[in-house]
């Protein structure tokens, strides 16, 4: 069988034509072309020659070589637009569960190289000179059947490298492929080995799973990836606080799912900007139930637990602050009975988070009973926000009609910040108050009230 791979740089094709050895594309580029998926931007190359031999050829053909690693047989290169990676045919030996191989032995045998890889669908080769497809392990059939199976017995594959546990969930989700039962059981048996993978790598894979639908446009792919993490028990190890919600019942008049499944479905229906927040928004419920037998104050508890989780996973600080803030705020006006004045103040106080909070509350609502209609509370909030905007309500201190220096002589200097915040909330109730004289008069009243 011959295959024409899209997105292969001409300089790379030139190199394959000039080489006195076969140069292969392998992995995602070949898999996706055989599956009829959009062309992969990832180009992995391999050949039965040392890294130095390939890198010399690449340079002669005008490719930019960024790094040559003789010990692993790896070359990082680019054509100026796409990054590529070459690896000599090899076989690897691992310390149990650790991502990096303990030792490497180079080989000239393609089948031996194929067997070191994780899944058969990633072990199909395409000769860049001839277009001939080489399939030593039967990966093309897996691709046709939309199936994921391991290159060797699953226990052996997953026990070598714990990161493969998350790669299974991610690739199955992105591709819409179904792992075999043996594959799932092998991952489940080795789930504890995820603990040997660095927090940064775990978080990076989790983020890819949370946005798995973006790869090839498969709707709800991210939910399928999370369900696979749950089904293989990997979720128990990377997010035990979330997994603790499995089997915990909720009020049947509001929820059709237990605590964990509700969180997964909230993430399923969430806008891509708030999926991590949707996944963790109820993470305080198991802890609250253990303390009181109820879920009251789970939002407050959840903020602290979400922070612990994200700091443990070495998440970026901005991501952590956003998720924690949204977790803390997501229960406000749950029943839609908060009075307009209080909603106005809430919107102004939390305006930084408001656009994302709206997305989270919608996901939370949809995740309760798989209802994709607009959350009633949000319809109410939108009407209130529209009125505030029409009135010219200031949403930040910068939009106030006075600055701190205008309050000199009216309020004590040490209280300037406090008074400005109070003026902002005063204007939240009526945007027409945001004019200089009215604000100065209110500032004077507030100062005198405190003195009295």
Question: What features would you describe in this structure?
Answer:
Helices cover 50% and strands 10% of the residues. The strands form three sheets. It has a seven-stranded mixed sheet. Helix 7 (164-175) packs antiparallel against helix 11 and helix 17 (298-312) runs antiparallel to helix 18 (317-329). 43% of the residues are buried. The model has no long low-confidence stretch (mean pLDDT 94). The longest helix has 16 residues, at 354-369. The N and C termini lie far apart (90 Å). It has helices at residues 10-18, 28-35, 51-60, 110-115, 139-144, 154-160, 164-175, 181-189, 199-210, 213-216, 221-231, 234-238, 240-243, 259-269, 275-280, 285-292, 298-312, 317-329, 340-349, 354-369, 376-391, 416-428, 436-451, and strands spanning 24-26, 43-47, 64-69, 74-78, 83-88, 90-94, 101-106, 125-127, 133-134, 147-148, 178-179. With 452 residues, the chain is of the alpha+beta class.
List keywords for this structure.
single chain, 452 residues, alpha+beta, seven-stranded mixed beta sheet, 23 helices, elongated
Summed up:
This protein is α+β, with helices and mostly antiparallel strands and 452 residues long.
For the secondary structure, the number of strands is 11
Shape label: elongated
- Describe the largest sheet: 7 strands, mixed
Tally the helices.
Answer: 23
What value does the average pLDDT take?
94
Helix content: 40-55%
The fraction of residues in strands falls at 5-15%
The stretches of 5 or more residues where confidence is low (pLDDT under 50) are none
- Helix/sheet category: alpha+beta
The rounded distance between the terminal residues' Cα atoms is 90 Å
Strand order in space, largest sheet: 3-4-5-2-1-8-9
Please give the radius of gyration in angstroms: 28 Å
